[in-house]
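This part of the workshop introduces the protein records we will be handling. A record pairs a protein's sequence with a compact description of its fold. Comparing a sequence with its tokens is the quickest way to learn the format. To make this concrete, we reproduce a full record directly below:
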Amino acid sequence: MIRAAVLAAVLALPAAAQGIPEPGDYRGEPYRAPVPETLKGAQVIDGSQALDLHEAGQAIFVDVFPRTLRPEGLPEGTIWREPPHQTIPGAIWLWNTGYQALSPEEQARLRDGLTAAQGDSDRPLVIFCREECWMSWNAARRAVEWGFSPVYWFPGGTDDWLAEGGASLVTAVP
């Protein structure tokens, strides 16, 4: 049994070394998983580049991390407080817009939010979530398909931001 596990791990190494290919469509569950190194039509940036863009005020940062909703089935009268969401300072939080399939409301929130954020400017949209989070890849892909430009995908998200020494995260307001 151990030999089989070792053999499987050794055989998986070449596939892992090649990286994760871009899927032909939007990615679903699990959303927290290794992501591709590319996104056709977008520029992929790392934490250092994100910090440079942020410090220069040259980009609009868009966080697509999902919002924690009140759990279903809580007894009437139960006090529930939505946990705070921490994001990059100045980022726009367009929650629940990185899923594989979007409701009409979520799709409108993403499209309208990106339109309002970018306006007539040519400032890049930096779309992020967390490290190894397909939601940012999905949202950035939609932005590219809808004709937004330039689109930067920041796959390291807030994790990479903090690792690179970026400013402390702030509480986002939905």
About this structure: The chain has a mean pLDDT of 90.
